[in-house]
Design goal:
By secondary structure, the protein is α+β, with helices and mostly antiparallel strands. Helices cover 47% and strands 17% of the residues. The strands form two sheets. The chain has a three-stranded mixed sheet with strand order 2-4-5. Strands 1-3 form a two-stranded antiparallel ribbon. The longest helix is centred in the N-terminal third of the chain and has 29 residues.
Length: 171
């Protein structure tokens, strides 16, 4: 699929060079294909990580909450610039904690993905600040809060939220 996207990009360049009106549409299709491939690769990685959940390594590293959150947002495969712009990460006060950074980034990516789905179900396009991730230290406890302006979670689903391999979505 990625190779087809590359071929479409080449066709778009040639169409643009010859002034053909479909050049923009071809470039858009190519970008959509590449985003889809990136998302599929991410989904495969997620499934592999989920399969390993029961055998998590014991080694942990000390990580900065601010660094992990900023890195997770920067690495997330947003589908559009508008989608990216709706996410705001705020560091009120950084803290460190022991974790496996790649697994914690995966947790953050899952939360962002779920929040973006909720926002996509809302009327109108997402706006800056519709998804807010906040890092703060409250007393001696660190908090990372992920909040969106979506419709919320069905109360009937709450008891199952943190069960392994449970999802309310098909992908």
């Amino acid at each position: 699929v990625s190779l087809i996207g590359d071929a479409l990009r080449q066709e778009a360049r040639q169409a643009q060079d010859t002034g053909q009106p479909q050049a923009g549409s071809l470039a858009d299709l190519a970008d959509r294909l590449h985003h889809m491939v990136h998302g599929m690769n991410r989904q495969i990685d997620l499934q592999i990580a989920n399969a390993r959940l029961m055998n998590l390594p014991r080694a942990h590293e000390r990580v900065s909450a601010a660094q992990v959150v900023r890195g997770a947002v920067a690495a997330y495969p947003f589908r559009t610039p508008r989608e990216r712009a709706c996410v705001q990460a705020h560091v009120i006060r950084d803290f460190h904690f022991h974790s496996l950074e790649p697994l914690f980034v995966q947790v953050l990516h899952n939360l962002v993905k779920n929040a973006l789905r909720a926002l996509a179900a809302m009327p109108g396009p997402p706006r800056p600040g519709d998804l807010r991730i906040e890092v703060r230290l409250v007393g001696a406890r660190g908090h990372i809060t992920v909040a969106d302006r979506g419709p919320g979670i069905d109360p009937l689903l709450l008891p199952r939220l943190f069960q392994p391999f449970v999802s309310t979505q098909s992908n």
